[in-house]
Amino acid sequence: NLDTIAPTGSISVGDKVWDTFLDSTSFGFYTNTEETFTIKAEDTASGMENGKIEYLITDISYTGEDGLKKLSLLPESDWILYSGESKIKQNTTNFIYAKLTDQAGNVTYLSTDKIWQDNIQPEIVLSAEGTKYTDSIGSNAYDDSVVYTISVQGEDAPLKFLRYSLDGAAAIDLKDGEKITIDTPGIHVLKITTEDSAGNQSEVLETMHVYKDFSFSLDGASSIYDGQPIALGTDFEAVTSIPTGEINFSYSTINSEDKIKGLPTNAGDYFIYAEIAEDTEKCYKPQRTTMKYTIEPKEITPLDQTLFITKNLATNYKFDVSNMIANI
Predict the structure, then answer these.
(1) Cβ contact 9:100 at 8 Å
(2) Residue 25 CB neighbours (<10 A)
(3) Angstrom distances, CA of residue 98 to CA of 54, 56, 82, 210, 295
(4) pTM attached to this predicted model
């Protein structure tokens, strides 16, 4: 009997099945797994016992009558004899074509939609713009602020999402190439996550220290000698724009550059030097300030006619001797 009936069949990838030669293709799906495909064929007339199943995997889309003609003109060497479950190509576009030939020589062509296989993780790239700051612990530090440009490279599959989270806060969606400004003092952790349409995920963590200046001054002018070093909070005040830690003091006389640790006791004119060390936890830069200060001699009135004056007395006291003169 003459057999003019072409065989039928299907191409299956996962739960997707194609059983015709497509007039047009759509995007089938993305995958990051090592997908396999199967081809089935049957012929109700002469059968497939002595027929053959062949396939072709390419990134070229053949559709409609024009595509079918081009496909039929391909050399036989382009086709691979199907012998069982086979794998699609990795990290590329896959169009799968099947050529079913029954033992009478009737041919049927089948085709799939576009299948994109991608098992490569997206590469997150952080580009920082800012003035580097050298702190005392050698951290990744910036002066005042830092601006990060976030992009994804080497990615052919569209991204499902690109997000960032700062210091554990809720994630915020980003556009590829978007900038993030971090300008609050402190130690910050920037987390970037992304996933492409094939399901590949990437994550990047960046820790940076943003250091700030703050205002610092001393408020005071003079006090009277009392035998004790002048004291912060009693004889003068420290004014800062933020709560700070310990303030270290030193001083020198007006006519000397030699600094002495601590605060002065004796009467005289001084420069008071104050320093606040770098805060590597809250990320504040060290601050220094200077104040001119005078300790006035204390005035005393001797009651005895006999007066012995020592160097220390002469420095720290003013003497009102009017009472002694009146008694002479």
Answers:
(1) yes
(2) 16
(3) 6, 7, 9, 61, 101
(4) 0.78
3-state secondary structure (DSSP) of residue 48: coil
Question: Encoding tokens for residue 15?
Answer: 């739960």
Query: Is pLDDT of 325 > 60?
Result: no
Residue 263 has pLDDT above 70, yes or no: yes
From the list 125, 96, 118, 81, the residue with the least C-alpha distance to 13 is: 96
Question: Would you put residue 282 in left (φ > 0), alpha (ψ -120 to 50) or beta?
Answer: alpha
Residue with tokens 């059983």: 19
> Does the pLDDT of residue 314 top 70, yes or no?
no
Amino acid at 17: V
Tell me the three state secondary structure of residue 3.
coil
pLDDT band for position 300 (cuts 50, 70, 90): confident
Q: Report the first-to-last Cα separation within the chain, whole angstroms.
A: 160
Q: Got the DSSP string for 77-134?
A: GG-EE--S-EEPPSSEEEEEEEEEE-TT--EEEEE--EEEE--PPPEEEEEEES-B--
The Cα–Cα gap between 289 and 153 comes to: 49
Structure tokens at 111: 């085709």
Q: In this model, does residue 301 exceed pLDDT 90?
A: no
Nearest to 278 by CA among 135, 141, 143: 135
**pLDDT mean across residues, the chain:** 91
What is the rounded distance in angstroms from the CA atom of residue 222 to the CA atom of residue 144? Answer: 36
For 156-167, write each residue's pLDDT tens digit.
778 999 999 999
Quote the CA–CA distance of 236 and 252 in Å, as a whole number. 17
On the 0-12 / 13-18 / 19+ scale of CB atoms within 10 A, 247 is middle
Residue 23 gets which letter from DSSP?
S
**Per-residue model confidence as pLDDT tens digits over 12-66:** 999 999 999 999 998 889 999 999 999 999 988 777 888 899 999 999 999 999 9
Beta pairing class for 298-300 and 317-319 = parallel
